[in-house]
């Protein structure tokens, strides 16, 4: 079937400190690197050959996934020496594609968790005879996204970047970050310089009379660009709200990897993940949160909608809500952290250093 390109070169700046040591697609979600879910879903849709367009911390990907044979895939890796944008990254890997000029190539952004029917997108592309087909989804507030209005047949009529006024919001359909390109379109993208498909390639194709087709699929869709979204996406995978054949266990309230240790009276709910060699102490309560490998939650701590980095330690009776704790950080006992606070990698907070009262 169709081969694919996965765009995994971003720096993940909005996800720091999670991405200080790990590229965004390799941060674990539901117990495995997020990229594993994307690869598994592509494989389930019949994709056999995938080229990964890497850049930031590019050396991390191949040692983990190798040639892809463990996943039943053929994987190749191409690294950008300088950031090239979405279009430039696509063009940069063109030499590794096997498709002929009129054959379809799937393209996925590496930070989108979605229930997209991949086969349906490919079928829409073939049936419409489009040059490029786009997965569109509907959102309540589209101001942070690029709008993609279509006509009655689904043909794209415009690309409108991040509208702010009510008059500019002409549709609730947004670009959802998955495409099917006719191979010849990829070859037409300028080589060797930064190119944005959203701001340059798509508008220029439209202006030249090319056929761009939209397919609205409003099943599960989440941009994992922020820590809060990433934690939610991981929990939704565990709860079964977001589909993936790569979740290493049954869907339910919690996912505890085999080498983790959880006290019998600890309570884990809301799609919580306890990673390899992590520890949850007596009486702790963890809801909708992710504990990465080797993290320690001491007795009596209460953690909600938070992400605890690899090797980090949360002291006894500390309360965390919507917090992000970097790899190797140590939050001492009796701290209260909330409202999106981030603690940097290897930082130390002594006991009782930070406390938010309920009336602040």
From TrEMBL:
Domain Nucleotidyl transferase intervals: 4-236
Domain Mannose-1-phosphate guanyltransferase C-terminal, residue spans: 252-333
InterPro entries assigned: GMPPB_C, Mannose-1P_guanyltransferase, NTP_transferase_dom, Nucleotide-diphossugar_trans
Gene3D superfamilies referenced in this protein's UniProt entry, alphabetically: Hexapeptide repeat proteins (2.160.10.10), Spore Coat Polysaccharide Biosynthesis Protein SpsA, Chain A (3.90.550.10)
Record-annotated membrane-spanning stretches: none
Pfam families: GMPPB_C, NTP_transferase
Entries under SUPFAM superfamilies matching the protein: Nucleotide-diphospho-sugar transferases
PANTHER family: SUGAR-1-PHOSPHATE GUANYL TRANSFERASE
Family: Belongs to the transferase hexapeptide repeat family.
Stated name of the protein: Sugar phosphate nucleotidyltransferase
Organism: Streptomyces omiyaensis
């Amino acid at each position: 079937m169709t081969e694919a390109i996965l765009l995994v070169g971003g720096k993940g700046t909005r996800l720091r400190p999670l991405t200080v040591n790990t590229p965004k697609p390799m941060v674990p979600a539901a117990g495995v690197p997020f990229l594993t879910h994307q690869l598994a879903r592509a494989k389930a849709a019949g994709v056999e050959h995938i080229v990964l367009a890497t850049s930031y911390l590019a050396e991390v990907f191949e040692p983990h996934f190798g040639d892809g044979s463990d996943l039943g895939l053929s994987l190749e890796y191409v690294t950008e020496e300088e950031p090239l944008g979405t279009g430039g990254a696509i063009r940069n890997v063109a030499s590794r594609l096997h498709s002929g000029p009129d054959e379809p190539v799937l393209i996925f952004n590496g930070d989108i968790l979605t229930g997209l029917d991949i086969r349906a997108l490919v079928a829409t592309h073939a049936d419409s005879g489009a040059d490029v087909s786009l997965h569109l989804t509907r959102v309540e507030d589209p101001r942070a996204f690029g709008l993609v209005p279509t006509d009655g047949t689904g043909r794209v009529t415009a690309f409108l970047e991040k509208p702010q006024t009510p008059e500019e919001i002409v549709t609730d359909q947004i670009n959802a970050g998955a495409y099917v390109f006719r191979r010849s379109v990829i070859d037409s993208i300028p080589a060797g310089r930064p190119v944005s498909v959203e701001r340059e390639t798509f508008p220029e194709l439209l202006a030249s009379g090319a056929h761009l087709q939209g397919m609205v699929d409003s099943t599960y869709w989440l941009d994992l660009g922020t820590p809060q979204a990433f934690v939610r996406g991981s929990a939704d995978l565990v709860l079964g709200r977001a589909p993936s054949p790569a979740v290493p266990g049954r869907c339910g309230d919690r996912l505890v990897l085999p080498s983790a240790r959880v006290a019998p009276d600890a309570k884990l709910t809301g799609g919580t993940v306890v990673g390899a060699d992590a520890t949850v102490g007596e009486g702790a309560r963890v809801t909708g949160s992710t504990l990465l490998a080797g993290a320690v939650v001491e007795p009596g701590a209460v953690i909600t909608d938070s992400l605890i980095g690899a090797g980090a330690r949360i002291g006894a009776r500390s309360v965390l809500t919507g917090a992000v704790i970097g790899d190797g950080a140590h939050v001492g006992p009796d701290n209260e952290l909330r409202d999106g606070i981030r603690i940097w990698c290897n930082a130390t907070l002594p006991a009782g250093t930070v406390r938010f009262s309920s009336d602040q």
